[in-house]
Amino acid sequence: QSTWAQTTAKRFNFLRAFLNPTIRVSTKSIYYSNKQFQSQQKINFSSFTLLKYLSSTTTSPLTYERALNISRNILSFLEDGIAGNELLQIRATAEDSSLTIRWRQMMGVFLKTQIHCIVPYGYSPDEKGITQYNRDLSSLSQPNLELKEMEGKIWEILLRKAFGAHPGRELTVDEARAYTAILSARVQNPKFVLKIQQLATSLADNSKQLLHEKMLDILLDTHKEIMSDFGFEGEEGYIQLQYSLLKHASDPQVAYNHMTATQSIFKLGGIQI
């Protein structure tokens, strides 16, 4: 299996901890956490019957050409379609919305667009369909430079439109392992544990969504404490760092460190991921 295919196949699960529970992908609609966006971005599949028909009747195996067509369509929607406008709306809320919320909103736009583009190829319009598509990508045995280039273009548009950022420098796999190991150790530090426990206690009468968002803000602060040692600074640096970590999501050590950190913090807050 190609490194690119393996990486792509694991990214969805790599991000789920940051998407749940404030973004839920279902067969009927996609919800976003920010109330300002709910009326605009609650996408009801009014043509769900047609989508279900397409996904149930199109069963051809995924090929490189089909994967390229899906990537081209995603790129087109992000460049010129409604999805591209939604990314620009996210950027417009920079002064009123936290970075972690905007990152999740961007991922929501991406997942919604991906669902729209994979359904005609036999995938269900939900999380299960995305997961299956990524598995099928991982089964493609030969590397493909055009697919890799297309992926780079997709992420360039996502970051530029939603944040006015660009991918920046990439961590090496050894740097990614070191970074996530430090992050995992930090969130298990007694002082950090106490901070999360106190937060959970103070918000015990509030929604889990609010607690989730506050914990992500604390995790963001922890990232900022670490990332400067790896050459990343400020908001754009955080965005570049997250993108760079995604590119190493298929590495077992990176994935383990990241999930250990994420599960630790949400377990402390009593949130299931």
Order of helices and strands: HEEHHHHHHHHHHHH
Number of helical segments with 4 or more residues: 13
Please tell me how large the radius of gyration is. 19 Å
Average pLDDT, rounded to a whole number, is: 79
Instruction: Give the termini separation.
Output: 29 Å
For the largest beta-sheet, the strand count, sense and barrel status come to: 2 strands, antiparallel
| Count of β-strands | 2
Task: Specify the helix fraction band.
Answer: over 70%
Shape: globular
| Cross-sheet strand order for the largest sheet | 1-2
Structural class assignment: mainly alpha
Low-pLDDT residue spans:
1-9, 12-58
Brief digest:
This protein has helices spanning 3-19, 35-41, 48-57, 64-80, 82-92, 99-118, 127-139, 145-163, 173-187, 190-202, 208-227, 234-246, 252-268; strands at 24-25, 30-31.
Could you list some keywords that capture this structure?
273 residues; mainly alpha; two-stranded antiparallel sheet; 13 helices; 2 strands; 1% strand
Overview of the structural elements:
The chain has about 270 residues and is mainly α. Helices cover about 70% and strands about 0% of the residues. It contains 13 helices and 2 strands; from the N terminus they run αββαααααααααααα.
What topology does this entry show?
Layout: H1 3-19, E1 24-25, E2 30-31, H2 35-41, H3 48-57, H4 64-80, H5 82-92, H6 99-118, H7 127-139, H8 145-163, H9 173-187, H10 190-202, H11 208-227, H12 234-246, H13 252-268
